[in-house]
Amino acid sequence: GPLSVTEFASKVGKSTADILKFFFNQGLMMNQNMMLSEEQMGELALEFGFDFKKEESLTKENIFEQLQVADKPEDLVDRAPIVTIMGHVDHGKTTLLDSMRNADVAASEAGGITQAIGAYQVVHSSGKKITFIDTPGHEAFTEMRSRGANATDIVILIVAADDGVMPQTEEAIDHAKMAEVPIIVFVNKCDKPGADPEKVKVELMNYGLVAEEYGGDIPFILGSAKEKQGLEELQETILFISEIKDYRANPNKFASGVVLEAHLDKSRGPVASILVQSGTLEMRDMVVAGGAFGAIKNMENENHKKVLKAEPSRPVVIFGLNSVPNAGDKFIVMNDEKMARQIAEAQIDKKRAAEQQSKQAFTLDQIKNHIDQGELKNINVIIKADTQGSVEALKGSLAKIDIAGVKLNVIRGSVGAISNSDITLAMASSAIVYGFNVRPDASVRRKAEEDGVDIRLHNIIYKVIEELEDAAKGMLDPII
Ligand code: GDP
């Protein structure tokens, strides 16, 4: 039968506060003794990634019994590692993705007609599979993560050997580190005259990425995406990490996962590329993806081939949703159309509520409230400054600040103007952006406003510190 908030929380191994907070964020005041409706359960399943057992079909009546909270070890089977490639523009990400795909037999058998679905799988000569995600950018990667959709096991950092570490390489490193996933460095364009892979290794040491021969544990692979050199070694390294990390999932339940991209096709209606993360997706399954829902009418792989099933780590294109979901939306299967519709509609309301909230989410003048409520342990800070000297000086000063037991955590400190990427990172990590002798341009300022990110501009270090201390005491003057 139905469960109360407290009973549900203990069943799924969450705290009562987690569940109440979820509803609170939708503007719904619940208490721990209130009974959850089936629809609310479904929403929680989508939010926290619970799945449903597949022994019998899921109905409104049995949703509580069918909830699968934790997989038993014996239910788990190996799944393909999910890999994202990141790096500076023109360092060869697209070429690497293409080369790896074209080297794959299954793909070439398909006649070379491929569709851009945001991800594909290759089969290594050992028979093992690897899933590559083509994230449109670092920001999309982190935005997805900030929404709880962890669609990457391993990051490949691509760095051109003739160019070395560039601004977006730095960004990629920040994003990969935030995601706390293993990093493999692919030093690309080693075929070019003037390529200096050793220099890249030394440069990356400054970012904490230390090659094995220098005593670190980061695999560096020297190669050429264009000449298809180093690809085999890259795949072997991915599979090696995959073996150690032992990525597993339970295929024997209703599928759940994440939307990679989606659009409206003139003749076929809403089309969504999705990644199955657990369970198995099948034709005719009723899917709820963000604010969209519908029964799967057709399913295709990256080679335009019709598929009937999609196991964990498999990217597929699905047809049949009633509207276009957003990239990064989570999906679950919910084989009850009425409930699916209600959950989808609740997602739309929730998104609206969240947008309202984020307008004021990370501002400095809220810090005192957070401290008073004992919620805040770290204040994340991004520093952008005119010189490396200023960056280091600010970092040093901030490290010494202790506001009522709250520590400052510099998640990015670099030279240069405040960029859109800084804002995205700030949003994803609830950080405040400090500009020291640098300013954001109008478009960055606009994005910060939209995302509710606080930008503070200064040119004297002690002003920064004074301001943070004032903020902690709740005595802040607005400056921007
Ligand atoms: P992306 O912006 O990171 O996706 O970079 P692209 O894959 O579009 O590559 C940018 C340019 O570098 C293109 O002209 C590629 O042909 C070239 N390129 C990529 N990889 C290599 C390589 O290994 N060697 C050489 N010589 N050129 C490469």
TrEMBL record:
Q: Which GO terms describe its cellular component?
A: cytosol
Q: What is its main location?
A: cytoplasm
Q: Specify the domain of life of the species encoding this protein.
A: Bacteria
Gene Ontology molecular-function annotations:
GTP binding; GTPase activity; translation initiation factor activity
The record places domain Tr-type G at 78-247
Q: What does the UniProt function comment say about this protein?
A: One of the essential components for the initiation of protein synthesis. Protects formylmethionyl-tRNA from spontaneous hydrolysis and promotes its binding to the 30S ribosomal subunits. Also involved in the hydrolysis of GTP during the formation of the 70S ribosomal complex.
Q: Give the record's keywords alphabetically.
A: Cytoplasm, GTP-binding, Initiation factor, Nucleotide-binding, Protein biosynthesis
Please name the source species. Answer: Mesoplasma syrphidae
State the family it belongs to.
Answer: Belongs to the TRAFAC class translation factor GTPase superfamily. Classic translation factor GTPase family. IF-2 subfamily.
What range of the intact protein is shown?
51 to 530 of 628
Q: Quote the record's binding site residues for GTP.
A: 87-94, 134-138, 188-191
Q: What is this protein called?
A: Translation initiation factor IF-2
Kindly list the places in or outside the cell where this protein is found, as annotated in its UniProt entry. Answer: Cytoplasm
Q: Which gene encodes it?
A: infB
